[in-house]
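Anyone up for a design puzzle?
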């Protein structure tokens, strides 16, 4: 299904373009792109938030949510989960306004574990210790990037995540 979407998108973008405008690697990949992203991790239903950067065509996305430290007043529960992702790829511009980025990386989900050991020896105001237990998996997918002047909009689908974002191109 993913391949079909990619092929159709490339064909639609290429229909209105002259052959000289196709594949503008030198023009598009000499720019810096910064973006913020938000989305969803399929395995756990946990949100994914992150940042993306494309420099000279090389792309990195880093993100996740969750922490071992709970805010004051929040009690531990079985629903305290976390996610993380790192993706690397290279941008392939079809035309100036549309490009795609095949990526590989890792995606993780986990739970915040609360250590109840030694609870009777803790001071009254001392918080229970926590640790993060994550399960990392190999992830792969594709990002689609559309731009208008300096504004970019991106959407990504990988094996374990789906997300979108906005950014700026310098």
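Challenge accepted. My sequence:
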């Amino acid at each position: 299904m993913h391949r079909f979407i990619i092929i159709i998108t490339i064909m639609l973008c290429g229909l209105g373009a002259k052959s000289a405008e196709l594949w503008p690697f030198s023009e598009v990949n000499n720019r810096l792109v910064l973006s913020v992203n938000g989305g969803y991790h399929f395995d756990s239903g946990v949100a994914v938030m992150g940042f993306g950067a494309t420099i000279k065509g090389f792309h990195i996305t880093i993100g996740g949510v969750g922490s071992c430290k709970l805010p004051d007043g929040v009690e531990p529960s079985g629903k305290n989960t976390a996610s993380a992702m790192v993706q690397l790829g290279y941008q392939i511009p079809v035309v100036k306004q549309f490009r795609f980025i095949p990526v590989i990386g890792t995606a993780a989900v986990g739970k915040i574990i609360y250590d109840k050991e030694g609870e009777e020896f803790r001071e009254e105001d001392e918080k229970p210790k926590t640790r993060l237990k994550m399960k990392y998996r190999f992830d792969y997918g594709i990002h689609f990037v559309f731009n208008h002047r300096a504004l970019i909009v991106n959407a990504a689908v990988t094996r374990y995540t789906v997300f979108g974002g906005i950014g700026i191109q310098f």
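A detail worth pointing out: Residues 2-169 form a domain with the Porin fold (CATH 2.40.160).
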